[in-house]
């Protein structure tokens, strides 16, 4: 394994102390690494003007607003928390992100999408994702115990942002889940306490 610099080790420890998610940590490290590559020297030697020029460089390269804001957030963590030099970030500003409306499928399109899945398990997973508004990671983590047919809700444990929440469970979706449970048990495909 490559040797980790004391500065990077310090940043890793700072992120670990705050229990940042692994993906967040990777994004922050990537932001500092790219900045150091642009700078051509250790990032702890940067000035506020270097940071301003780097943001301009990113804009000129056509980096999307979302990526640019994620980079700024990573650099902000590095300079404010790891180095304790918040004043260097004074000229760095997040850029506005255009708010667009999502494409909404018609009832017929949703039906065709779900029915295009090859087996009952996949059709059920797509139905849960669409019908209850769950993310793919939330669907695959769903357990039988998370289904509350009395209150007609699904419990989502540690969804996005490591937050628990409830999602509405339409009656048709409950029937699909029950059909998968019966078929999955009969075929031996249902994971213990899972789905």
Fold and architecture overview:
The chain is mainly alpha-helical. It has helices spanning 6-17, 22-39, 48-60, 65-82, 107-115, 120-132, 136-140, 171-187, and strands spanning 147-148, 153-156, 165-168. It contains eight helices and three strands. Strand 1 (147-148) and strand 2 form a beta hairpin. Helix 2 (22-39) packs across helix 4. The model has no long low-confidence stretch (mean pLDDT 91).
Order of helices and strands: HHHHHHHEEEH
N-to-C span: 38 Å
Shape: elongated
Helix content: 40-55%
The biggest sheet, with number of strands, parallel, antiparallel or mixed sense and barrel status, is: 3 strands, antiparallel
Cα Rg: 23 Å
Q: How much strand content do the residues show?
A: 5-15%
If helices are DSSP runs of H or I spanning 4 or more residues, what is the number of helices? Answer: 8
The number of strands is: 3
Mean pLDDT: 91
Task: Describe the strand arrangement of the main beta sheet, using strand numbers.
Answer: 1-2-3
